[in-house]
Write a structure and sequence with these properties.
alpha+beta, 3 helices, eight-stranded mixed β-sheet
Length: 153
């Protein structure tokens, strides 16, 4: 798969990109995982937040594969809303996505730790990318999550 990653502020996304982003989040977090919440958050439009969008360049029109977001949270760069469409799963795009998300976080918020709340089954995946657990696990939306940190470099 030939993947294109685009980093953007929310205000710079096209209407199509916003639709694709919010639809993927709803499909993954609400429909698949049963997390009944609204995914439209003020932090999405904060001027310092950035959104990462992944597309498959090998198919036309380019299907939307995945997304991630980085925000400023208490002086740390926080990755969140990391999701991958079913078409991108099992293809290696998840590794590309987290690597691109870390790069986006480092560029947006240089010299800061990067944190995320890993869903329980994904803790080992994030460990392979340098993240380490910190703090206590907690439950959100019926899913256990583990806070994790990647040191600033």
């Amino acid at each position: 798969m030939n993947t294109l990653f685009i980093t953007s502020r929310f205000f710079d996304l096209s209407a199509y990109e916003i639709h694709a982003l919010l639809k993927l989040r709803a499909d993954v977090f609400v429909t698949e995982q049963g997390w009944a919440h609204t995914d439209i958050e003020d932090v999405d439009i904060d001027g310092s937040s950035r959104h990462l969008l992944a597309y498959d360049l090998s198919v036309r029109p380019m299907p939307f594969l995945g997304a991630a977001r980085v925000i400023d949270e208490d002086g740390r760069a926080k990755l969140g809303r990391i999701c991958l469409s079913p078409a991108g799963r099992g293809t290696g795009v998840s590794t590309e996505l987290i690597e691109a998300a870390v790069a986006m976080a480092r560029e947006t918020f240089p010299d800061r730790e990067i944190v995320l709340d890993a869903q329980g089954p994904l803790v080992d995946f994030y460990r392979r990318h340098g993240f380490e657990p910190f703090g206590e696990p907690f439950e959100l939306g019926g899913i256990e999550r583990q806070p994790m940190v990647l040191s600033a470099t």
